[in-house]
Amino acid sequence: MLLTLPADNVTIEGVSDRRIAVAAAAVAAGMTGAVGAAVAADRRWRRADEVATGEAHDGFALPEGREAKVDRDDGAVLAVTDAGDGPAVVLAHCWTGQRATWAPVAHRLVQRGHRVVLYDQRGHGGSTVGDDGCTIEAIGDDLAAVLDELDVRDAVLAGHSMGGMAVQSFVARHPTTATARARRLVLVATAAGGLPSARAGALGAAAVAAPVLDRVMRSRAGHAFVRSSVGARPRYSHLAATRDWFAATGPGVRRDFLTAMHAMDLHEGLAAIPLPTTVVCGTRDRLTPLPLARRLAARVPGATIVELEGVGHMVPLEAPDRLAEVLTEEDTA
After folding, report:
1. What CATH number is given for 65-195+264-332 in this structure?
2. What are the pLDDT digits (tens) for 271-305?
3. What residue ranges of the chain are covered by domains with CATH 3.40.50.1820?
4. CA triplet 160, 164, 168: central angle to 5 degrees?
5. 3-state helix, strand, coil in the chain (%, to 5)
6. Are 127 and 156 in contact, with CB atoms under 8 Å apart?
7. Average pLDDT in the 81-102 region?
8. What pLDDT score was predicted for residue 31?
């Protein structure tokens, strides 16, 4: 069933906007407990930032590089950063993220002598949607267009969460381009299907487009609302960035891509993946949990899996050193 959320006090299967507001507030409160516990949690998260080393606190700025636009046939325009020189790594980001989600990893790759291509998925960051809309097929085609436009060859293709779905879709829909332009895949905190049921997905998709959610995300509780996206050692900067990227993504884009992810099933194409593949997942990932990663790895011939203890869903933020190692392991093999 298609569910819509106009701006004011409507119902969704009998659930009023007010009740969604109460539920959203309850979820946010549940992330941190009572007010006193929330304050204490904030202190811990901020302290984790203060003691962290090797991380730039500059709003997750991208490495300096060449800015480009990739025009799609359906009218979408994709914003791209092409940084560094050397063996190529292409990074596709998550649902409600931006190319800056990969910034900590991108800096490490450039320092290691790699060319790094990052782009905003359609409807995210500086990229527009286009007539094909927010579908898994469209983002697979977008990745093919980025590789062709920038003439990327012999690349490692890495996708985080929805970015990993884009990589899988690309390989299934463009196998000739995949073998011509890529040498390896790294699928991070992602799945090929098996996300919550269609009914739960529809309700969730409606909720992420609700005006009340934007109000919650802009409130003092906003960063606590995304606590479940990270693992055992949360940091305030990671939560704040995840919150800000979510809030910067249009409600319709959030809804439509979430609907697409709940409906997708990419498992059939996994057995035909012709490239060496590594699947990476945190043991504390609650959004695309470890069983989905293991199922994905089991379906891809010869795939290996890397399980990161205590890490949650936002692997590029939480474990950039380890992820950079995985992406460049051929360099030291």
Report:
1. 3.40.50.1820
2. 999 999 999 999 999 999 999 999 999 999 999 99
3. 65-195+264-332
4. 170
5. 50, 15, 35
6. no
7. 97
8. 40
